[in-house]
Design a protein that fits this description.
alpha/beta; seven-stranded mixed sheet
Length: 346
């Protein structure tokens, strides 16, 4: 999602009486309200592009700060519950995060013949690990996030993932995912990219490059291994930002690449994922439903065989873009979502 986190109070006539132009001024305005953390008349505003904003009402700010790597805000919102915002971009919302995380995790695990271990790059809030741990065959989930502060406050505030964080099958590692994969000798059946969107100055864009996929990630997959990553906005007007580029980059490295999309209400857009392997995929609805019943504990809220199959069918505009895309992510030639990370602002 977009760039800046802004808060403003709405008077009765609906126009903002306080509007802040920079992140630091915004946070200062919150700090000045030390005796009252109730923002009953305040709104979160996210700049999606220079001419487009997305806003919704908030109850209060649960956490705010800047770690070594990124700006972090956790909001209690009226419409979407608890919302995690990193570097000005909404990462997930309590009421509909199940859409994003079911789509991120289950297709890859269901397409694999017998997955035993999973490596999650990022995923500090714990939701991706929660979904992976629902698979009865899984013996180990490694969740590797670079930011201790993000992990700590998600463990504290996101109670839906409390059980996942305490699961004995979870190996929680605070490290750069690239360095962790290089250091580990084991291989994984599934590697998941639950990373923040690539923004200029952010900590993640190098984990979307061809060299990373080819030289570091792919060698850490087992013979039947599958890689899946979130790939940013995939709407008719937004899919050219990074989605098509991520797809084309992965296509240079793996023999079989499958893209799929779903609408996430709190993101105000369609979102995209890319799944890749050197083995072919089968997303036949009946077979997927059978595997869901056999392998997964509890009921999924969003995904079933039919919805997974239909999510792989793209409209004409996006299909044509993917077919014609030529850009490949490299360290020196990256595309970014509108916005900037902490390193860019220092």
């Amino acid at each position: 999602m977009g760039e800046a986190v802004e808060f403003f109070n709405l008077p009765i006539n609906g126009f903002s009486k306080n509007h802040y132009d920079s992140d630091l001024t915004i946070f200062d305005s919150i700090n000045n309200d030390k005796n009252n953390n109730n923002h009953a008349n305040s709104w979160f505003e996210e700049i999606i592009d220079v001419d487009l904003k997305w806003s919704f009402a908030i109850n209060r700010v649960l956490h705010k700060g800047t770690s070594e790597y990124q700006d972090i805000v956790l909001l209690d919102t009226k419409r979407f519950g608890k919302v995690l915002v990193i570097d000005g971009k909404m990462q997930s919302a309590e009421v509909d995060e199940f859409i994003y995380h079911e789509c991120l995790i289950h297709p890859a695990l269901l397409c694999h013949p017998n997955p035993k271990n999973v490596f999650i790059m990022g995923g500090g809030e714990g939701s991706a690990a929660r979904e992976a741990l629902r698979h009865t065959a899984i013996e180990k989930v490694v969740m590797c996030d670079i930011d201790q502060e993000v992990v700590d406050f998600c463990r504290r505030y996101l109670t839906a993932n409390k059980q996942a964080f305490s699961d004995k099958k979870l190996d929680l590692v605070i490290n750069d995912a690239k360095a962790e994969l290089v250091e580990r000798k084991e291989k994984f059946d599934i590697i998941v990219g639950d990373l923040a969107d690539p923004v200029e100055g952010g900590p993640c864009y190098q984990l979307y490059t061809k060299s990373f996929y080819q030289q570091i990630l792919k060698p850490k997959l087992t013979h039947n291994g599958i890689f899946v990553t979130q790939a940013g906005p995939a709407g008719v007007f937004t899919h050219k930002e990074v989605f098509s580029s991520i797809y084309n980059t992965i296509k240079q490295v793996f023999k079989y690449v499958l893209v799929y999309t779903a609408h996430v209400p709190s993101f105000a857009d369609t979102w995209g994922w890319v799944m890749a392997s050197d083995q072919p995929f089968c997303v036949e609805a009946g077979k997927i439903d059978k595997k869901i019943e056999e392998r997964i504990k509890g009921e999924l809220q969003y995904l079933n065989g039919s919805s997974l199959f239909s999510s792989t069918i793209l409209n004409k505009t996006i299909s044509q873009t993917l077919k014609n895309e030529t850009h490949i992510y490299t360290e020196d030639d990256a595309r970014f979502i509108h916005g900037h990370g902490v390193a860019y602002r220092i």
